[in-house]
Amino acid sequence: MGLQAPLWRAVTVFRVAALVYATVLMLTGFRDFTRPWLGWAVLAAMIAWTAVTGVHYHDPAGRNRSWLAADLAFTLACLLASMLVVPAAKLSSGGATLPMAWVAGAVLVWALRGGRRAGGIAALIVGAADLFLRGEITSATVNGTVLLLLAGGVMGYVSRLTDDAETRLQRAVELEAATRERERLARGMHDSVLQVLALVQRRGTELGGEAAELGRLAGEQEAVLRSLVGVHVTAAVAGTADLRLLLGRYGSPLVTVATPATPVLLPAAVAAELAAAAGSALDNVATHCGSSARAWVLVEQEPDAVTVSIRDDGPGIAPGRLAEAATSGRLGVAQSIQGRVRDLGGTVAITSGPGQGTEVELRVPLPR
């Protein structure tokens, strides 16, 4: 039922307690009323409405705008009915209305459903009705409106906190379930396919010749399968993705991927674009540095940004070569790497020199 369910039950309990207070006031003061029978009728309607809303608000589907509007309208009707029951002189001097504190129930449900702003609006509407009822600004109207505003503000704030807590709890549960499933698949893969591929790689290297080539291919497939074990059940949570898993599939005997031990969660679209930019950089290594060039991918997570560095041991980039490539229409670096990261609000730094290899640093700020 969610973390907000206790708050809705608390509002119902508050309304019941406020009804008890209104009943006590009715019993001690109904002899002074101009129409006591109408006062008892209003109290009976308040009791019935409290029971109806208590049952209706128990179901999250019943907490819609139509019911909240009806709740506020009924509360205002009970409050304004005091004009026909309580003597005008008593109201103008700050005397009790028929519903008294019961009117705060509508303000609380508005704040619980719509936040602090909705609670404040409901409090001002009830305060305006109370002012109209009494005919002048008194300490009773001012104090009552201020208390309603405070109650609406506090309930709206607590409602937002419970929403955030529920979202985080759901993400934690999904992450734990995905982690367990990934570990289960990893154990199964390790006990069967991965062990066979590792054996083929080791025996092929020992035998040499064509068997060595077969062993190398087996080693590459082992690395790919290990990354797929993680990608198959990504620890993605409500639109997020673990960058480590997306980059892990680029790992191979020639590409070493180093990531933090904990998940690097980013919005799914951001993680996909950042991983694609890193993949383009690795494609450039394979294309321009030769089939035997090695590359290293390093992921660093900072409090406000994520940095992915791709370094290779190739011949490096001659000065002015990137600008010349962009001028001649070859936009691999300009679009596939720099363009992607720029669209994410990040930066790309390329450090290279003849005979020194190349390092491409992709830095993307974390969303607030």
UniProtKB/TrEMBL annotation:
One Pfam family, short name: DUF5931
InterPro entries hit by this protein: DUF5931 (IPR045975), HATPase_C_sf (IPR036890), HATPase_dom (IPR003594), Sensor_HK_TwoCompSys (IPR050482)
Transmembrane segments: 12-31, 37-55, 67-85, 140-158
UniProt keyword annotation of Transferase present: yes
Location of the Histidine kinase/HSP90-like ATPase domain: 274-367
Keyword terms, alphabetized: Kinase, Membrane, Transferase, Transmembrane, Transmembrane helix, Two-component regulatory system
Residues annotated as domain DUF5931: 1-167
GO MF term set: kinase activity
Record GO biological process: phosphorelay signal transduction system
Presence of keyword Membrane: yes
PANTHER family: NITRATE/NITRITE SENSOR PROTEIN NARX-RELATED (PTHR24421), OXYGEN SENSOR HISTIDINE KINASE NREB (PTHR24421:SF61)
Family annotation (NCBIfam families): HK_morpho_MacS
Name of this chain's protein: Histidine kinase
Source organism per UniProt: Catellatospora methionotrophica
